[in-house]
Structures are given as structure tokens and as C-alpha cells.
Design brief:
Helix content: 40-55%
Structural class: alpha+beta
Largest sheet: 7 strands, mixed
Number of helices: 7
Strand order of the largest sheet: 3-2-1-4-7-6-5
Length: about 210
């Protein structure tokens, strides 16, 4: 599991969803432990051996210093046992919406198919605090992602492949939406299309 977390952290960085050491990735190892990226280590120099193992119940690391956003990851894992992977990015377009504190409405089919519908904005809380996790859990609902006010986004899945794919799709949808806003008034999908897409989402992404 640590190597998989490291590999997807690298993929996140290579996809330009983060810069430097921003963002973080985690994955359940078993019912009691998770593997999470370390704190303040740039992705280009990070190694699999630096991935940190943390006890879910106590929040204590076996060795090393876990991501500063560990409280958020723990809150999600503790509240949603069906979630096995988390990807937190600072991607440019989702972060633009998060700074505007503007939800991402269903404007293209892919968004409903992969994200489950409109993406809410979790209330603001200072980075690294337990309140970030509380706000994310409240806003996430039954979707695969949420925007963090002034902070980026969080994407979840049954595994890291799914959570990473959600992150990529959300950034692509956010880009379309932000560009549409600059050109005019975006038109949301009709309700029947959202309902049809939601059924497909539940069949494909049900956690």
C-alpha cells in the first residue's frame, strides 16, 4: 500500500493537480491503518519509503511525519468505512471555484457520471485542523468529491485509481465551467439527464 500511495502521489503531481508538496494522498491498508503522504516533502524527491503509516483510531504515526491534513483524512475514513482512498488536490480550476466559493453544477454529462452530480463547497476551516474534516464529511454526502473553500478539493473512491480519476475529471469539468463563466452564462444539464447520469454513477461508483 505505501508504494501505491507514493505512485499516485507522483501521478497527481505529474498531472499538475498540485505543485511542490501541496495536496496529499492516502489509502486504507486494513481496518486499523492507513498509508498517507508525508508532510512537506516535494513529490519529485519523495520516495515510497517516506510514506507514513497511521493508526486510524489513535491518529498516531508508526514513523515519520504524516501530511498536515491528516485530521481531514482520518475524519473521512472514520465516517465512511466504504471509502478506501482519498486524493486532495490544489488543481488550478477547482481551486479557482473554491476561492470563489462557487459550487460546480452539472454542466456536462461526464460530471454526473463520475462525480455523482453537483459538487458542493465545504465551509472554510484553517488548513490542518479537525474542522476541515468535519466540514468535508458534512458536504460530501453521497458524491465522490467536494470543493474546500479557499483550498482546492477532496476526491474519494473504493481505491486510488478511482479517487485519482475523480480528481482528473473534476478538474476538467471545473475548467469547462470557469471558461464558460468567462464567456457567458453556463447552461446546466436538464433534470432528466442528471437523473439518468446519476443512475449510471451509482452502478459504477457506488462505494
Amino acid at each position: 500500500m505505501p508504494e501505491e500511495v507514493w505512485r499516485y502521489a507522483k501521478k497527481m503531481w505529474e498531472a499538475e493537480l498540485v505543485a511542490g508538496s501541496a495536496g496529499n494522498v492516502s489509502r486504507r491498508i486494513d481496518a486499523d491503518r492507513i498509508a498517507i503522504t508525508p508532510s512537506a516533502i516535494p513529490y519529485e524527491t519523495m520516495t515510497a519509503e517516506q510514506i507514513v503509516i497511521v493508526n486510524v483510531a489513535s491518529g498516531e504515526a508508526e514513523s515519520g511525519v504524516p501530511s498536515y491534513e491528516l485530521p481531514m483524512h482520518l475524519a473521512i475514513f472514520r465516517s465512511h468505512p466504504e471509502i478506501h482512498a482519498i486524493v486532495h488536490t490544489h488543481a488550478p480550476y477547482v481551486t479557482t471555484l473554491s476561492v470563489l466559493r462557487k459550487p460546480l453544477p452539472p454542466v456536462i454529462d461526464e460530471m454526473v457520471l463520475h462525480l455523482g452530480g453537483p459538487i458542493a463547497v465545504a465551509d472554510y476551516a484553517f488548513t490542518g485542523t479537525e474542522m476541515v474534516g468535519t466540514n468535508v464529511v458534512r458536504a460530501l454526502g453521497d458524491h465522490t468529491g467536494v470543493l474546500l473553500a479557499n483550498h482546492g478539493n477532496v476526491c474519494v473512491g473504493r481505491d486510488l485509481a478511482q479517487a485519482f480519476h475523480v480528481a482528473v475529471v473534476m478538474e476538467a469539468c471545473a475548467r469547462v465551467y470557469v471558461q464558460a463563466l468567462s464567456a457567458g452564462e453556463p447552461v446546466e444539464l436538464p433534470n432528466d439527464a442528471v437523473a439518468a447520469g446519476r443512475k449510471m454513477f451509482e452502478a459504477r461508483y457506488k462505494l
